[in-house]
């Protein structure tokens, strides 16, 4: 990077901070901070939902998969996310919006104390917060890894720079700042992604290979197959199952985007927009990485540095800075939205249970607490980021795929299925048992069993077994020990009906749809 690239990067950071300052004027209370007061346009919510769904891990961990295996990186990652969100636009988005509009909650987990009980709410809140600290830590490490490729700064310095800038704008501006910066980041991403796409196409032409002829090159042998290596049919189905819950609110930050729109119909519309973006845009982003074995030789065994090396080689200064900004835009979008979601969970769900003083917070005190919590969460996740390549976590992609996908299910099952009429008989016993058993299954499959099986447990089972265990127990216990009460039934009806009293979209009857 030269002075022009640094100017682009510094200018980007300045704009992000300015948006945060401007958004500060729109935040008068906790509802504004966490759900934009329910005033966010559906199209902004949809773009924000899309942008908050992935980070620079795309250009490191998933770049390594694309470098090694080719198009399976899209087929087993972006495609199931798009399909999962499309299903969720009918199944979950409207109901999550009604949590705010009809129950007047500001946290995705706030309704759980009435849907189940306080113990269930606290179990899901604490485990969700801890998982998010690890998840966001992996994101900081990913962007710091890319930054080191371009600038030579150390991993810890990169984590500090990106974390500090993000803390400024998302702390003072809340969800409005997150969404508006994500809109700006989406525009930057378009410019950077298209620039890289064109640069790779031109380079292939210079080598007399061409876009279509490239797939016949020995270096791309097998790269055109949709399912290869450890990413086979079982992994695809498991990932679709997981992402159906995760990207429709199971990881909390996407749920806030649904809550921020003005109505259930607008929430569904924003989800459909996000699904379309997930289906189309990643093809543009992934194509250069699929071609990268023809253009660069990765220095890291997993190929996670391939995109960074290719960018340095192909793009002129200025555009190089724009692509680096694109890296930052992905990570800062996701991490800021996660910070806002966790701040909501802590201040609305956890703190009032721990402290009598917190239960008496007024609007101003609650807003201050939300901002302090955001800073603390970012600090903890940055601390975890410095350890992401330690033997405990192994590497960035392990944290993202194994830990997050594997642990998300036990947390998301009670939260997401608790919204649906079909599961109204599943009460606190079903929720807590399925949660605890899912966490235990994750530990068993990934550690004791994995260590004692020759070749280890396949990745698809490491990430899917915990969710499957939680799902089966949640449904089974609900039928064996029904805990539906008139109060819980009334709450579920409010979530499943529109403001005029008409029924919401019915829950599909097939087993796959119920999942």
Automatic annotation (TrEMBL):
State the InterPro entries in the record.
Na/Glc_symporter_sf, Na/solute_symporter, Sodium:Solute_Symporter_SSF
Keywords, sorted A to Z: Cell membrane, Ion transport, Membrane, Sodium, Sodium transport, Transmembrane, Transmembrane helix, Transport
Q: What membrane topology is annotated for this entry? A: Multi-pass membrane protein
Q: Which GO terms describe its biological process?
A: sodium ion transport
GO molecular function ontology, one term from the record: symporter activity
Which stretches are transmembrane? 6-22, 42-68, 74-93, 159-176, 183-202, 228-245, 276-298, 318-347, 368-388, 400-420, 432-449, 461-480
Supply one GO CC term from the record. Answer: plasma membrane
Q: Report the subcellular localization.
A: Cell membrane
Pfam families reported for this sequence: SSF
- PANTHER family this protein is in? LD47995P-RELATED (PTHR42985:SF40), SODIUM-COUPLED MONOCARBOXYLATE TRANSPORTER (PTHR42985)
Q: Which family does it belong to?
A: Belongs to the sodium:solute symporter (SSF) (TC 2.A.21) family.
Q: What is this protein called?
A: Sodium-coupled permease
Q: Which organism is it from?
A: Streptomyces brasiliensis
Q: What is the lineage of its organism?
A: Bacteria, Bacillati, Actinomycetota, Actinomycetes, Kitasatosporales
């Amino acid at each position: 990077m030269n002075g022009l690239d640094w100017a682009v990067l510094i200018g980007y950071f300045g704009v992000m901070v300015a948006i945060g300052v401007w958004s500060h004027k729109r935040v008068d209370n906790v509802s504004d901070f966490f759900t934009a007061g329910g005033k966010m346009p559906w199209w902004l919510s949809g773009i924000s939902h899309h942008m908050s769904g992935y980070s620079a891990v795309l250009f490191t961990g998933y770049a390594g998969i694309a470098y090694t295996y080719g198009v399976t990186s899209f087929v087993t990652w972006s495609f199931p996310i798009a399909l999962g969100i499309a299903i969720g636009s009918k199944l979950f988005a409207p109901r999550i919006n009604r949590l705010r509009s009809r129950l007047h909650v500001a946290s995705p987990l706030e309704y759980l104390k009435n849907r189940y009980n306080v113990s269930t709410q606290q179990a899901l809140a604490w485990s969700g917060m801890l998982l998010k600290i690890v998840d966001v830590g992996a994101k900081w490490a990913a962007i710091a890894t890319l930054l080191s490729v371009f600038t030579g700064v150390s991993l810890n310095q990169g984590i500090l720079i990106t974390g500090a800038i993000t803390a400024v704008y998302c702390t003072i501006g809340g969800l409005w700042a997150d969404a508006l910066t994500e809109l700006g980041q989406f525009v930057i991403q378009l410019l950077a992604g298209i620039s890289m796409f064109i640069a790779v196409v031109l380079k292939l032409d210079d080598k007399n290979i061409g876009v279509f002829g490239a797939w016949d090159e020995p270096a791309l042998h097998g790269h055109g197959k949709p399912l290869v290596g450890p990413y086979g049919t079982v992994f695809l189905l498991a990932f679709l199952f997981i992402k159906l819950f995760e990207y429709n609110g199971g990881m909390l930050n996407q749920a806030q985007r649904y809550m921020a729109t003005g109505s259930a119909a607008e929430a569904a519309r924003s989800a459909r927009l996000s699904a379309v973006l997930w289906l189309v845009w990643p093809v543009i982003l992934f194509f250069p990485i699929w071609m990268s074995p023809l253009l660069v030789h990765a220095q890291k065994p997993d190929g996670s540095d391939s995109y960074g090396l290719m960018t340095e080689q192909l793009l002129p200064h200025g555009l190089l800075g724009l692509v680096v900004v694109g890296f930052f835009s992905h990570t800062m979008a996701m991490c800021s939205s996660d910070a806002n979601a966790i701040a909501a969970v802590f201040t609305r769900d956890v703190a009032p249970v721990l402290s009598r003083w917190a239960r008496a917070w007024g609007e101003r005190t609650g807003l201050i607490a939300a901002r302090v919590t955001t800073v603390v969460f970012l600090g903890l996740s940055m601390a975890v980021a410095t350890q992401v390549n330690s033997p405990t976590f192994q590497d960035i992609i392990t944290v993202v795929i194994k830990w997050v996908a594997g642990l998300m299910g036990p947390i998301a099952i009670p939260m997401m299925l608790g919204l649906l009429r079909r599961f109204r008989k599943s009460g606190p016993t079903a929720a807590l048992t399925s949660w605890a058993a899912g966490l235990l299954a994750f530990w068993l499959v990934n550690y004791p069993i994995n260590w004692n099986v020759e070749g280890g447990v396949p990745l698809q089972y490491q990430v899917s077994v915990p969710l499957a265990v939680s799902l089966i127990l949640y449904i089974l216990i609900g039928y064996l020990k029904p805990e539906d009460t008139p109060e819980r039934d009334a709450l579920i009806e409010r979530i499943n009906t529109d403001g005029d009293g008409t029924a919401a979209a019915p829950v599909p009857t097939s087993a796959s749809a119920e999942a």
